[in-house]
Amino acid sequence: MPEKSKLKDSRKLNVWYSEDEFFDYGVTKHIGASAAIVYFALCRHADRNGKAFPSVELLVQECGLSNRVVAKSTRTLKQFGLIEIKRN
């Protein structure tokens, strides 16, 4: 296993990614704008393996949405198979 100092995230700083299919297939019209905003915030926090661990409070702050809307949006994203939620 390589030393930690040699492991690097290949993404550029201050850049996040989303799949082109999100726009190509008009996903927003099915999930709504609030869920799309939460999805993009999750993409922004995702590591190179696609895992993200932002708190609900952080999502509320970054997205400018209420706790209730963030919770509903994450349920919607899960329902459409865009995210997987695992609780510890």
Features:
mainly alpha, single chain, 0% strand, 88 residues, disordered N terminus, 49% helix
Draw up the topology in text:
Blueprint: H1 21-24, H2 27-31, H3 33-45, H4 56-63, H5 67-79
Helix pairs in contact: 3-5
Task: Characterise the protein shown here.
This protein has 88 residues and is an all-alpha fold. It is built from five helices and no strands.
Q: Would you summarize the structure shown here?
A:
The chain has 88 residues and is mainly alpha-helical. The protein has helices spanning 21-24, 27-31, 33-45, 56-63, 67-79.
Total beta strand runs:
0
Radius of gyration: 14 Å
Q: Give the termini distance in whole angstroms.
A: 27 Å
The helix-strand sequence is HHHHH
Largest sheet: none
Shape: globular
- What's the average pLDDT? 84
What proportion strand? under 5%
Count of DSSP helices? 5
- Low-confidence blocks of residues: 1-8
User: What structural class should be given to the helix and strand makeup?
Assistant: mainly alpha
- Percent helix range: 40-55%
